[in-house]
Amino acid sequence: MLSGMYIHIPFCLNKCNYCDFLSFKSNSDDREKYVEALIKEINMYPKFPLETVYFGGGTPSLLTSEQVHKILSNLNIQHGAEVTLEVNPKTVDLDKFKLFRENGINRVSIGIQSFDDKMLKVLGRLHSSSQGEEAFYLARKAGFDNISLDLMFSLPNQTISDLKADLDKLFSLKPEHFSIYSLIWEEGTDFFSKLEAGIYKETDNDLEASMYELIIEEAKKHGYIHYEISNFCLPGKRAIHNTKYWKNEEYLGIGIGASGYYNNIRYKNVLSISEYYDKISDNLKPILEEEFVDTEEKEIYEYILGLRIIPDGITPKGKYINLCENLLEKGFLLKKDSRYILSQKGVLMANDVFDKFI
Ligand SMILES: C[S@@+](CC[C@H](N)C(=O)[O-])C[C@H]1O[C@@H](n2cnc3c(N)ncnc32)[C@H](O)[C@@H]1O
Ligand code: SF4
Question: In this protein, which residues make up the domain named Radical SAM core (predicted)?
Fold first, then answer.
């Protein structure tokens, strides 16, 4: 049964130079109005018993703890559920962390991106490296024992030793979990214009691969499990919510631009805030597009998403057994009992492996 919910909070203090997530500036009235609309949307769906709730953004930590509480009190949250909130270091202090915790948040994911002040400026982040670090310590002090940090690599002009310095700092903090994404040059961002203007250039493939290998090696050295392409955790600390996506489980997506998967339909909500409010006030689900997932597509999703969970892999059926055997022969997969998992080579070329299933 469906047991996960993603809630999109589309507000940020400022737009980072690389980011094309759906987010914009807001004032406190905008946020209050949005929370009311979210609650109406939530109440359009059955009250599923939820094992995970994920507030993503944008910057969910711009909400007050009362607003978070109000949203959560409209949900049927199971005992022991994982309730995550994404945090931008510029928006928190010790009291705010404490209040989030008292109001039902038990996991935070802090957007660090880099521990290098010069790089943070290039990225357009409003916080310094020490403010990023401070946010981590404040979350700990407030009692959070499940903290994830978000970083990026393959950044403009970043060298291997810059990355090593970021990793040294990261491991000195010992978060339970971290995500580290290779920069995507998203159209429409300031970074993309600079790329087109020749001010920045993309990291060369060999350097990017060496960076990724360094991350994997260092993470292992520090006791982290590389359990998904961009995600690492201490034993027992996988992100339960995101793991539902990779296991191809259904979940509800709430809020502007959110995606969901419900009753065999993958859907995406409207992208315009005025359209969102119009639909909600008409008592309609604010869905922009829907796609029915048939059995064949469901199976393909299961394999592609399933392979992302590196230690678990997949157990293919039918024609996909031959495909996996072929990928095994070429060294992209390994076999563990009846399961196929990505090899080291497969991890480095994961997108090419996934393409073979389509
Ligand atoms: C929605 S943000 C969450 C945190 C919060 N908004 C913040 O940035 O502090 C999710 C993460 O996606 C990553 N991200 C955003 N844009 C990216 C891009 N163009 N390429 C790679 N990773 C990106 C960043 O690591 C970011 O922390
Ligand atoms: S990276 Fe995070 S803080 Fe920056 S614009 Fe994107 S969502 Fe907002």
Answer: 1-225
